[in-house]
Design goal:
This protein is mainly beta. Helices cover about 5% and strands about 35% of the residues. It starts with a strand and ends in a 7-residue tail after the last strand.
């Protein structure tokens, strides 16, 4: 369900216990007025992916497949399993030995390349599943690696999974990971 909450000039998406703080950054490819905010469904309808994130365009060479030759791995860079956080929380993620690239229309599927998907209170899907553009999944088809998420107090289960150009999950065990956070009110415990 999408609810347009215009308080403080922001829109929110409600569903599966998830509230996203949405803001379209110029890095998402344009087509929006400066300061304009869109609900996720409106953002996708405009030809973009999830709002409220920064893209990896122009990222340094470390964002590409790692030269060490190990197994591919996806991970959160700024939060860890068991952390206590306050909301909104900025989530940042990355990969090793895999290249994050933007999805294209029509879909382009290249071995060793894909983009992030984030599930709030959802689990890893088995290989070969096309991740729906619906709760609990947030798609990052623009190759972004950051999102600000407004979460209610209490336990939250986050899953980060890489998909190919068709949003299909891949047959690499390291390309999906989950963590559990506890959202607390007030300042994050030190």
């Amino acid at each position: 369900m999408i609810d347009r909450n215009l308080n403080d000039g922001r829109l929110a998406v409600l569903g599966a216990g998830l509230v996203l703080t949405l803001g379209v950054f110029s890095a998402c490819g344009g087509g929006h007025e400066a300061g304009e905010h869109l609900a996720a469904a409106d953002h996708e309808a405009a030809g973009h992916e999830a709002a409220g994130h920064e893209t990896a365009a122009g990222a340094d060479a470390a964002a590409s497949a790692d030269a060490t030759g190990g197994a591919p791995r996806v991970f959160f860079t700024n939060v860890s399993d068991g952390d206590e956080v306050t909301s909104p929380v900025r989530l940042e993620f990355d990969v090793e030995n895999f290249e994050i690239v933007a999805a294209h229309d029509p879909a382009v599927i290249e071995a060793g390349k894909g983009h992030h998907h984030l599930a709030v209170n959802g689990d890893c899907e088995p290989p070969g599943v096309v991740l729906p553009k619906a709760a609990p999944w947030i798609h990052f088809g623009d190759a972004s690696r950051t999102i600000d998420v407004q979460l209610p107090p209490g336990p939250v289960h986050l899953t980060l999974q890489v998909g190919d150009g068709e949003h299909r999950t891949l047959d690499e065990p390291g390309l999906c990971t989950s963590i559990d956070l506890t959202v607390v009110e007030g300042e994050t415990p030190g």
